[in-house]
Amino acid sequence: MIEKPAEYSQEQVVARVQLLQTLARAFDSPTGNAGANPGTRVARDAGAAGEEGAALELVRTLRESVGAHPAADELREPLCAVEAAARSQADGAGPAIEHEFTYLFRRKTKVPLTEGSYGLDLTFGRPREMADIGAFHEAFGFRVASDCAVPPDHMSAQLEFVALLCIKEAHAASRGWREQAEITRHARANYLTDHLTGWLPVFRRRLEQHARAPFFPKLAGLAEAGVRWEHREVAAEPPRSFERSLRRPRNPAATGTGADADAGAETGAGVGAVENLHGTGVHDSDSSSFPCGGCPVAGPQEGPGQVL
């Protein structure tokens, strides 16, 4: 059962969003030609600023986010692990970040960055997963930026989408739009339960098996901790196991599953109700009531890196 949302300050909401988006950018693929300068944004920055500048600048941004985060105490340990790995990287230990990225995520793809690569049913499961994810994204006006070569089930896109839902829910709540806030909260719970929360631990364990340096495994550990907290925050159901195969895609904006989801659609608590967020609700709001401005909560959105 999804509980009543807790009260968070604007600073705390911004910190949650910034953490998710920073982690999304850290695992983001380069724009443009996939064969040119392969690596994450961090890796590309390393080419210009050096390993120390790129990795430690990422840590500084993460530290700012964690410092104001409602789960600061819980996230401090995995953040320290990322910082230690970044300093080791800056000291020249292990391969360069962009080389490690290529080794892990591109060349023979030892550790896929996409949800559809995990689980038992890799043949027929992924189309269903993509359809389900696409329904969530479409309902909330989210789309991957045209110049960003990642699929919708990529970790960066999923982290960005959860960040967008956090913004939408907080903004709707701040304007007194109770129904819209509740719809968004339920969608966030369903998305985390069916997708991101479940496969991140599998991804992190696989990274630990294949990585030649600790930077990316520790970064994945922080992402897992942050997403796990978001999952608990909405009091969602236990995440589905990625050791099972098929399931039926649900209505992403419904307030329940199975019969409840069907009932939600009949009462307007489904996708039609979500559209209110882009109509007389959030879309028409001014930008002064939330520190991130009005743009993030007005669909459609682009990501990764385009939500804020």
The CATH architecture can be named as Orthogonal Bundle
N- to C-terminal separation? 30 Å
Biggest sheet details? 2 strands, parallel
CATH superfamily: TorD-like
Assembly state: single chain
* DSSP helical segment count: 10
- Spatial arrangement of strands, main beta sheet: 1-2
On the 0-100 scale, what is the average pLDDT? Answer: 75
* Spans where pLDDT lies below 50 across 5 or more residues: 30-39, 244-249, 254-300, 302-308
Roughly how much helix do the residues carry, as a percent range? 55-70%
Radius of gyration: 19 Å
Overall body shape: globular
Classify the secondary structure makeup into a structural class. mainly alpha
Could you state the order of secondary-structure elements as H and E?
HHHHHEHHHHHE
**SS elements, strand count:** 2
What fold name stands as the CATH topology?
TorD-like
Query: Which CATH top level class fits?
Result: Mainly Alpha
Number of domains: 1
> What proportion of the residues form beta strands (DSSP E)?
under 5%
Summarize the structure.
This protein has 308 residues and is mostly helical. Helices cover 56% and strands 2% of the residues.
Could you give the topology of this structure?
Elements: H1 10-26, H2 41-68, H3 72-90, H4 97-106, H5 125-139, E1 142-144, H6 155-174, H7 178-210, H8 215-233, H9 259-266, H10 271-274, E2 301-303
Parallel strand pairs: 1-2
Helix pairs in contact: 1-2, 1-6, 1-8, 2-3, 2-4, 3-8, 6-7, 7-8
